[in-house]
Amino acid sequence: MNIVMIGCRTAAVSVMALCGAVRAAEGVENVSFSRQVMPVLRANCTGCHKPGKSKGGLDLTTHASVARGGKHGPVFSPHDPAASPLIEETSGEEPSMPPEGEPLSPEEQALLRTWIAQGAVDDTASAAGAPPPVPPSPVYRLLPAVTALAWSPDGTLLAVPGRHEILLHGGPDLQEITRLPGAASRLEGLCFSVDGRLLAACGGSPSEFGEIQLWDTAARRLTRSIRTSGDSVFGVSLSSDSRRVAVGCADKLVRVFSTGDGQEIMKCDNHIDWVLGAAFARDGARLCTVGRDKAAKLIDVETGRLIDDINRPRDALLCVARHPSEDLVATGGAEGKIRLFKMEPRGGRLAEGDDKENSFVREFESLGSPLHSVAFSADGGMVACGALSGEVRVFEVPTGNRISTVTTGAGAVFALAFHPHTNQITTGGPDGKIRLFEVKTGQKVHEFPSVPLGGAR
């Protein structure tokens, strides 16, 4: 049986994995898929066998996808290494896989063989429904960049990402209330559910895994960690009923999961570059996604099929936000201006070359600098964008008129959020500080570090 495996090899696997391989080969201990097997696959195989680039229909980025096999069938037979194509193709005097670079070392071959002989067990923490292990709460010597912000619907909590954690701020001076530790080293998106009971975060550890975290905001408890993809995930969005969560992925896919059991319920591959933003329609049946491929797409959540292209490609799209009470989305990106679209199809796919922008509503004045963030006010009357230049502009949604300009003086505005009940807007960027400004005047009213320096609580 012929299976196709990776044609490139990255850096050597970790010392831990190799030492574990030797001990396992001697029969001293069980082989761990997550700690020992996965590093071998990642170093040798997943460059060509991952979502969006699965040669031979084979994805080797998770235990579930390895067990699923490829177009030629399963790649391993539990308890029977001799009958497992994964062993046949990667071992022997002249292994056929990987086709380029160095073959697997004897220790790596022994590790895979022993893992299969022991039953090819999945010990991934999230597979058993338990949260993955997380490192201790970090001590910060420098402020990390603020890549996301989210206000709870009642305006009492501000969620800010740290390293391997989310920090919740509240009270009159927005003091740190608590820390929510997670496995992802870097978080790229945050959002609260409509009722405020759930906080969703997305991110991951680049080139290792993507993670979605779902938190019970009242109990301050992680209810579910969903590992997906082999890289970070972006643009987290919760459906209005909180039953589904969507993310864009660096592997060019859009994924939707059930918040109840963490199962993947939809995967769409219509983008051809990183997908950086996602937004559910009000009824949760459709999803708008944007990416570096310059495309804004409307996807059917039930089937994963593309309903329509929303825009005419211009420049890379980096952010998207949905109007709080209407099926309107605001997109922003390298072009430097907000463009507003209806989340509805054109009445059927049109021929190549036809106008894709029947759902276009209006565009707002250009900032002359790429936009990294966009947000609507709680009542939907205003929309704001944050630019690489450090400028924020606030506009009236119905007219497109500019209301105010905010100059942060702190570099790119990666994150932006209106306070739900005050006339203030919150910003975050590369210097790691949170700033609040009056919307109408653009005056700064408060500034504080996103995390405590030196471990202070």
N- to C-terminal distance: 59 Å
Low-confidence segments, given as residue ranges, are 1-28
- Provide a count of the helices: 5
Portion of residues within helices: 10-25%
- Class from secondary-structure proportions: mainly beta
Total beta-strand segments:
30
Radius of gyration: 23 Å
* Largest sheet composition: 4 strands, antiparallel
Question: What fraction strand?
Answer: 35-45%
Note down, in words, how this protein is organized.
The chain is mainly beta and 457 residues long. Helices cover 10% and strands 35% of the residues. The chain is built from 5 helices and 30 strands. The chain has helices at residues 15-25, 33-44, 63-68, 85-90, 106-117; strands at 49-50, 53-54, 150-151, 158-161, 165-170, 175-181, 186-192, 198-205, 209-216, 221-228, 233-238, 244-249, 254-258, 264-268, 275-280, 286-291, 296-300, 306-309, 317-322, 328-333, 339-342, 360-363, 371-376, 382-387, 391-396, 402-407, 415-418, 424-428, 433-438, 444-449. Strands 3-4-5-6 form a 4-stranded antiparallel sheet, with no helix packed on it. The chain has a 4-stranded antiparallel sheet with strand order 7-8-9-10, with no helix packed on it. It has a 4-stranded antiparallel sheet with strand order 11-12-13-14, with no helix packed on it. The relative contact order is 0.09.
Blueprint (SSEs and pairs):
Layout: H1 15-25, H2 33-44, E1 49-50, E2 53-54, H3 63-68, H4 85-90, H5 106-117, E3 150-151, E4 158-161, E5 165-170, E6 175-181, E7 186-192, E8 198-205, E9 209-216, E10 221-228, E11 233-238, E12 244-249, E13 254-258, E14 264-268, E15 275-280, E16 286-291, E17 296-300, E18 306-309, E19 317-322, E20 328-333, E21 339-342, E22 360-363, E23 371-376, E24 382-387, E25 391-396, E26 402-407, E27 415-418, E28 424-428, E29 433-438, E30 444-449
Antiparallel strand pairs: 1-2, 3-4, 4-5, 5-6, 7-8, 8-9, 9-10, 11-12, 12-13, 13-14, 15-16, 16-17, 17-18, 19-20, 20-21, 21-22, 23-24, 24-25, 25-26, 27-28, 28-29, 29-30
